[in-house]
């Protein structure tokens, strides 16, 4: 029995490999191939485009996968997003030329409808765009429940020719104003849109990379065990990036003061040193707390050693998840 694991190629690829390398001790990939090998023979890994992965997992061709949550919504895949991996953070936004007078897409739809002009929008996210447009007040007012016309080289869907969504194959930001009136596109900082004289007027959603699971695979007792091994290791790597493992020495007279100052994942480990009256303190702290602690620790402790943990495995929590 092998669990099939789909990982993304493209914009999420580098961060995904970094996460895998923190989670397993060996991660190998042969040049110019799409197959990846972990040090677990019961996990079979293959690289796919992130757009494909939700459907592939939903259909049972893969048991688990990593993809952007935006693509889970776009494909309407019936999968279980089981773990937020906290990278690949993007925003899906509406943008149009910065010299347009409209405040947002809703006001643009209203003006085009009054003037009986065809409104064209370009996006890779056809279903998400259609849903967002249909939720606009002006669209409901002028077009009711009609579906916007989705235009691709292969098929046309929807009946409302006055509002059209054209499939983009990339470089979406280059299409206005000659080819389309507005775009729905992914951005991290908005810089590329600004450079192309576009302004963001609506935010549709935010997304990060998620581990998704086939619902039937979760019902298979053997696959479920291996799936939760994967969840445990990946969750441990995600948590590990947020914390620091610190060691320091403290005199007995300062021990109580130190314990009041330092936060901990649970409770610090305290060990007597060979020098009488001295103790070693070993604990896990949030990275965000580290800079606040340094001025305090300098006054009451010595010999601070700092490590970034590869993983923090909350084994009891995973066990409860499995039981649920």
Overall description:
- This protein is an alpha/beta fold and 324 residues long.
- The longest helix is centred in the C-terminal third of the chain and has 20 residues, at 221-240.
- Strand 2 and strand 3 (35-38) form a beta hairpin.
- The protein is elongated and about 85 Å long.
- The relative contact order is 0.14.
- It has helices spanning 13-23, 53-58, 69-75, 105-114, 126-134, 137-143, 191-195, 215-219, 221-240, 252-261, 287-300, 315-323, and strands at residues 3-8, 27-29, 35-38, 43-48, 64-68, 79-84, 90-97, 119-123, 148-151, 156-157, 160-167, 182-187, 198-207, 209-214, 243-251, 269-272, 278-286, 302-307.
- It is built from 12 helices and 18 strands.
- The two termini are 23 Å apart.
- Helix content is 35%, strand content 33%.
- It has 3 domains: 3-88 and 208-240, Periplasmic binding protein-like II (D-Maltodextrin-Binding Protein, domain 2, 3-Layer(aba) Sandwich), CATH 3.40.190.10; 91-206, D-Maltodextrin-Binding Protein, domain 2; 243-307, Alpha-Beta Plaits, CATH 3.30.70.
- The protein has a 7-stranded mixed β-sheet with strand order 2-3-4-1-5-14-6. A 7-stranded mixed β-sheet has the order 10-9-11-8-12-7-13.
- Residues 317-324 have low confidence and may be disordered.
């Amino acid at each position: 029995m092998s669990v099939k694991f789909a990982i993304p190629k493209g914009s999420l690829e580098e961060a995904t490999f970094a996460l895998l390398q923190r989670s397993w001790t060996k991660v190998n990939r042969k040049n110019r191939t799409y197959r990846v090998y972990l040090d677990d023979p019961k996990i079979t890994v293959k690289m796919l485009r992130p757009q494909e992965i939700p459907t592939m997992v939903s259909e049972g061709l893969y048991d688990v996968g990593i993809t952007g949550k935006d693509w889970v919504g776009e494909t309407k895949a019936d999968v279980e997003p089981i773990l937020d991996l906290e990278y690949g953070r993007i925003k899906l936004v509406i943008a149009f030329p910065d010299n347009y007078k409209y405040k947002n897409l809703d006001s643009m739809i209203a003006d085009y409808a009054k003037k009986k002009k065809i409104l064209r929008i370009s996006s890779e996210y056809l279903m998400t765009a259609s849903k967002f447009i249909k939720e606009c007040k002006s669209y409901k007012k002028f077009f009711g429940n009609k579906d916007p016309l989705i235009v691709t080289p292969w098929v046309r869907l929807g009946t409302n020719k006055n509002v059209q969504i054209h499939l983009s194959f990339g470089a979406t930001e280059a299409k206005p104003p000659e080819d389309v009136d507005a775009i729905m596109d992914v951005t991290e900082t908005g810089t590329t849109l600004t450079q192309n004289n576009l302004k963001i007027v609506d935010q549709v959603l935010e997304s990060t990379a998620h581990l998704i699971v086939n619902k039937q695979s979760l019902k298979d007792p053997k696959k479920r065990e291996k799936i939760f091994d994967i969840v445990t290791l990946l969750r441990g790597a995600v948590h590990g990036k947020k914390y620091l493992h610190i060691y320091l020495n403290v005199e007995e007279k300062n021990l109580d003061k130190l314990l009041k100052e330092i936060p901990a994942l649970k409770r610090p480990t305290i060990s007597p040193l060979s020098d009488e009256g001295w103790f070693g303190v070993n604990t896990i702290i949030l990275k965000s707390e580290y800079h606040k602690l340094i001025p305090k620790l300098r006054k009451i402790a010595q010999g601070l050693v700092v490590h970034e943990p590869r993983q923090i495995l909350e084994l009891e929590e995973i066990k409860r998840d499995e039981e649920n």
